[in-house]
Design a protein that fits this description.
four-stranded antiparallel beta sheet; alpha+beta
Length: 467
C-alpha cells in the first residue's frame, strides 16, 4: 500500500463545538478505563462518538454515511477514532469480541468516508492510503489495527491477524514512530509470525476451541463421498503447469451415474485465435453453457450485437481472463479480469441479454486510467455470486496486479500487487453499485479463492459441522 499525505481540513465552528463536547465525554471515560470499569468506560466512549456524529453509531447499513463524510480531516477525525478505539479496547477487556471487532473495524470505514469526501474531485485508487500529518491520527489507526490483530489471533484467524499486523507496519514507518507506537506495535525484524500458514497446523492442533460462538464454528474438514444427483459436470481446457501442457479437450460426468468421464468434442476455435484455455469461466443459462473469452462471438455460429450506446467492443485485445461471471434472469454478467492492455485488471461490467444476443456496458472501463468511488476498483480473480433476491450481483476481494503492470511498463505499476478487502453489490434493477460492509470474523484479503453461495439455509448433516 502506498502512503499519500493529505492536507489537513478546516474545523468549522459547529465542528469545534462537537469536538470540545466529545473531548469532555472522552476524558470522563479515560479514568473509568484505567480503573478497569470497562463497561462504564465503553458507554462513555460511545456517547462521545455519538456527540461527534450527532447520531447514534450505526450498527450496520450502508458503507457511505454523510455523518462520517462531514468529519474534518484533522483533529475532529482523530477524536472520532480515539472514541471508537477506547470503546473497542474496553469491550476487548470484557471479552465481547464481536462488538470490539466491529468498532475497531469501523475506524477504517470512517477513514474511507472522510477520504472519499476530501478527494471527491480527484479520487484516488484503493492502494493509496489516507495519511494525515498528525502523529495522533497515525497512532489511532495503529491502535485499531493492533486491536483487530489481537482479536483475530484469539479467534484463530491467523490470516486476518497477520494481514492486520503487516498493515500496522506499513502505516507506521520508522521515521514517524513514537515510543507509544513502538509500545503497542514493536518492530520485529524477520518476524517469524509471517512464516505461519493459515490456519497453521501447529496452532490448530492445540487450539481447537470456540472462543466466541457468534464468530466461530468448531468443525474440521472431512472427505465427502460424492452422492448421485441430477445433471452433468463439465470440464473444459486448463493447464498442468504454468509452462504447459495446455489442454483443449472437453469432458463431462453424468452425475446420475458417477461411473466415468465422457469425452466431448474438443474446443473448435484454433489456438491461433484463443491460445490457452486458461483463466476462463462458463455459466449455464437454460439448456446451454456459455464460455466467455473476451470476443463478441459466443461461438462460431452465435453472433452478438452491441447496445446503441456502445460504439465499439470494449475489450481492446478481444481477450479477457480471470474475470467474475454470473448468470441470472436470462442475462450473463461479466466483471473485471485482466488482458494484455491492462494487466492490473479492469473495472468493466458487461451484460449479455442471452435471448436478444445483445451486449450492454453497465459500468467501468477495460483500461482504468483514473479512479472512481462509484464502483469497485480494478481487479482480477475476485469471487462473485448472485443474492437470494436474484437482483443483486456481489463481487468480493480479488487483486490489482500492480507488480505485473510494472513488469510490462503499464500504468499503476508497483513492486507489490494490491489485495482488495471490499464487498460490492450491483443492483440489477437500479443499475448502480453499492459498497457493503464486511463485519465479523472476516477472511483476510485474497484472490484466486474458491467461493459458492447457497441460497437456502444449510441443512444440519454429518458432513456440515454445526457445533
Amino acid at each position: 500500500m502506498d502512503l499519500k499525505t493529505y492536507p489537513l481540513g478546516k474545523l468549522s465552528e459547529g465542528g469545534l463545538r462537537r469536538f470540545q463536547s466529545s473531548m469532555l465525554r472522552e476524558e470522563s471515560a479515560d479514568p473509568l478505563f484505567k480503573a478497569k470499569k470497562y463497561k462504564d468506560a465503553c458507554m462513555n466512549y460511545i456517547k462521545a462518538a455519538a456527540l461527534m456524529l450527532r447520531r447514534d453509531l450505526p450498527t450496520n447499513g450502508p458503507f457511505r454515511l454523510p455523518e462520517y463524510a462531514r468529519l474534518s480531516a484533522n483533529y475532529e477525525l482523530t477524536e472520532m477514532l480515539a472514541c471508537l478505539n477506547g470503546a473497542a479496547e474496553s469491550l476487548l477487556h470484557l471479552r465481547q469480541y464481536k462488538q470490539a471487532l466491529w468498532l475497531a473495524a469501523e475506524i477504517e470505514v470512517v477513514i474511507r468516508n472522510v477520504q472519499m469526501e476530501s478527494t471527491r474531485w480527484t479520487p484516488y485508487f484503493e492502494w493509496f492510503d489516507f495519511d494525515l500529518p498528525l502523529t495522533e491520527y497515525v497512532y489511532e489507526r495503529l491502535r485499531a489495527r493492533v486491536t483487530q490483530q489481537r482479536i483475530f489471533r484469539t479467534l484463530g484467524n491467523t490470516g486476518a491477524a497477520n494481514e492486520r499486523r503487516w498493515h500496522s507496519t506499513t502505516i507506521t514507518p520508522r521515521e514517524v514512530q513514537t515510543p507509544e507506537m513502538r509500545k503497542i506495535h514493536p518492530h520485529i525484524p524477520n518476524d517469524p509470525i509471517y512464516q505461519l500458514r493459515h490456519p497453521d497446523p501447529k496452532l490448530v492442533a492445540s487450539s481447537l476451541t470456540v472462543t466466541d460462538p457468534t464468530l466461530q464454528v468448531l468443525g474440521s474438514w472431512n472427505k465427502v463421498n460424492l452422492q448421485k444427483g441430477a445433471g452433468h459436470l463439465y470440464v473444459l481446457g486448463g493447464e498442468k503447469h504454468q509452462t504447459g501442457p495446455w489442454y483443449r479437450d472437453f469432458w463431462r460426468m453424468d452425475l446420475t451415474a458417477l461411473e466415468q468421464w465422457q469425452p466431448l468434442p474438443a474446443y473448435p476455435v484454433p489456438s491461433s485465435v484463443i491460445k490457452e484455455l486458461v483463466g476462463y469461466s462458463m455459466v449455464v443459462d437454460g439448456d446451454c453453457a456459455y464460455l466467455f473469452t473476451g470476443r463478441r462471438e459466443l461461438d462460431s455460429s452465435v453472433r452478438t450485437s452491441l447496445a446503441a450506446d456502445l460504439e465499439s467492443w470494449p475489450y481492446p485485445t478481444n481477450d479477457i481472463v480471470d474475470y467474475a461471471m454470473q448468470s441470472v434472469g436470462g442475462k450473463i454478467y461479466v466483471f473485471g479480469g485482466s488482458h494484455k492492455d491492462s494487466v492490473i485488471g479492469c473495472t468493466l461490467l458487461m451484460e449479455l441479454d442471452v435471448a436478444a444476443r445483445r451486449w450492454t456496458r453497465l459500468s467501468g472501463t477495460a483500461q482504468p486510467k483514473t479512479a472512481s468511488y462509484d464502483g469497485p476498483g480494478p481487479r482480477r480473480l475476485a469471487c462473485s455470486w448472485v443474492g437470494k433476491d436474484c437482483n443483486t450481483l456481489f463481487v468480493m476481494y480479488g487483486d490489482a496486479d500492480r507488480q505485473g503492470a510494472r513488469v510490462v511498463g503499464q500504468q499503476h505499476g508497483a513492486y507489490n500487487a494490491y489485495a482488495h478487502d471490499d464487498l460490492w453489490a450491483w443492483d440489477i434493477t437500479r443499475r448502480i453499485w453499492d459498497r457493503r460492509r464486511l463485519v465479523g470474523n472476516t477472511p483476510a484479503p485474497r484472490s484466486e479463492m474458491a467461493c459458492t453461495y447457497f441460497r437456502e439455509e444449510l441443512p444440519s448433516t454429518s458432513t456440515v459441522p454445526t457445533t
